[in-house]
Model the fold of this input.
Amino acid sequence: MIRYFILCCLLCSAILKTEAQVDTSFWFAAPNPSIADPNTENLEIVLMVTTYEQVANIKVTQPDNQAFQTITAEIGANTTGKIDLTSQRRFVVNAFLNTPLNKGLHITSDVPVSIYYEIRHFVNPETFSLKGRNALGTHFFTPFQTTFRKDPANIQGFDVLTTSNIHVIATENNTLVTFEPTTELQETSREGTFTVKLNKGQTYSMQAKGFKTNNNLAGTEITSNKPIAVTVSDDSFYFLEHTGDQLLPVHLLGTRYAAIRGPELDEAPTDVPDFDKGPYERIYVVATQNNTKIYNTAKAEQAFELDAGETAFFELTDEVMMIEGNAPFYAWHFTGYLVEPTAALLPPLDCNGSKEVGLINTDDIGLYLFIITKKGNESSFGVDNGTDFINSNEFQSIPGSNEYVFAEYLLFSDRVPTNVPMRIKNSNGFFHMGVMQRSGLSTAYAYHTDFTLSPNLNFGRDTLFFCEGEKVQLDAGPQFKNYEWQDGSTSSKFEATEAGLYWVEVFNGECYFRDSVFLVKEENPIIFWEDELLFCSGRDTLITPGPNFESYLWQDDAVTSTYKVNEAGLYWVEVENTCGVTRDSILVSEDNSSLDFTTDTCLFDYAPQISLAPNSGATFQWRGQEIGKPLITDQSGIFTLTLQNSCALVEQETKVHLIDLNELDFINAVSANNDGINEVFELPEFLSQAGLSITNRWGDVVYQNINYKGNWPEPNTPAGTYFYQITHPCMPNPLIGWVKIIR
Done:
């Protein structure tokens, strides 16, 4: 069987209308708001949803948390709407460390939208750009600022913890996430690399321990066996300055970035000890490969050579800076307003961006806009709310670049009214737009852009399932000039037969584009159990065919994943997954195995020694011996034995008699004359269960009894010499001898 998954989108709509980080599925692990009490007043957490030509029906769920109340919203076309999560923030915020939580958000829409997560607080806001499928991957490094910290303090009633945090969300069950932290972690004794297992919608958070400049998680490497999304957050210095963003995976990073300096930045405060006193507007870079060279394109002498995971920074003292590397790297812009910093992940500069961005001003002070585009696009901007503030004459060239220009705007509320949606468009080409929202005493910052523009290239779902024996054909479409798949093949199509991450990079004549998909192979359902199961009388026993099937059907129409039995019989179950249906049966019997071991044991021999071991199949242990080792002794006595099977455990005593046959002395003459003395052939008491056989001198059997009671000779037995044979369960061989009857 071959399944066809078509990558190409509708040609016209995808080429003419590429939006700001547009998608229909968004995964997000929400950070702690970084204030003393996440339930404090004046704190809001909201989703800002921008729609385009169609009405959007939005659903917000937590796949691993049934207590979360699903949120639905209908947002009109060509507008920006707010979804308020504040009432359920205790379910959303990842405030607990080093343990899997059920707080992951999955936001879906029936049409493409773009979404931003906002923490709204008058002293500590931040904006997180949700990157949809572009946020999902299996390999990440974490960027952070590495030069500013302040000791913990309580400022105006707020606990200030200036430290870095990482939050991960899994998008599939049985996801293994491996972390290699670059510093000691808070609230855990873990050291070095470690792995955690997460199910769909589960999150995992960690925090750096300590508050010095080197106590940060910059360069932490994160890998996984299935797609995850990663959020970073940081309280930086001086007051409550929450910074953070959702990251791109390594395979979607670029090699060229540009950052525009914040328009109202102060020098770093001089009253804060133990950190760099220089200008604090910086671009922090994190390499993803060894021997990565990164430099300022306008000042080539400003350069770094880094290995994977290493961090460095450029001071952003000019109005704009472009940086370039010989391998993909992260670029983290640390900027702000006055002494209130904020930060955002910079989008790769080349071959991505948006032609239309929705925006809403949520504060009565105003906002800053940073716009970067290619030369030739300056005169093609428009704003659809009637305030056309973008003038082509305000664009300037970016030093070190012959391709890109930039402009920056300080917009007060008289030009961008509060809570009024507006749309910024460019009819000629793509652009990047950063938004710094002034809010109360602080700032929030994010880039409103598509971080990996790839027109006509889309695998659709991020994860695809296929069955054993099937082939999956991935089709990148016929419209590109060049193709390269993960194995180096260059066809427009790729046939996959194994699970794993697959990607294709295409060239459309101007830029390269890449998309990826994770293939998961599912086996036909297999039931793992024995043919027979024993149960204990009076107890319930659970039958479990396996936990990972989509449906179950038992012989009595029960549909549970396990089945309770308490009586013998034949039981069957039918299980199903996406690849088929399997039925199997199991015989259930009562465990009647005995745990009793004879309590009196003897041995009669010429070299007495005994080896005792139960033969019931139970687990046993003689006191003082190893489990399962027989008791070997040459001494009589009482020995303690423990027996155990699936139903019970007992302890009992066993009495052992050892007799040396060399010491036996039998009477060999019987006077059967009715005088009451020595009338019968007598055996020692310990042979009370012996068998006796008597023969005459000619070998004829004249008496035989398997349980001799001391009643021979009989009254009519003639006088003479007879021969005896004594048998007993404790003797390995019969005892033989002669006896004479005297009358």
In short: Residues 1-20, 268-278 have pLDDT under 50 and may be disordered.
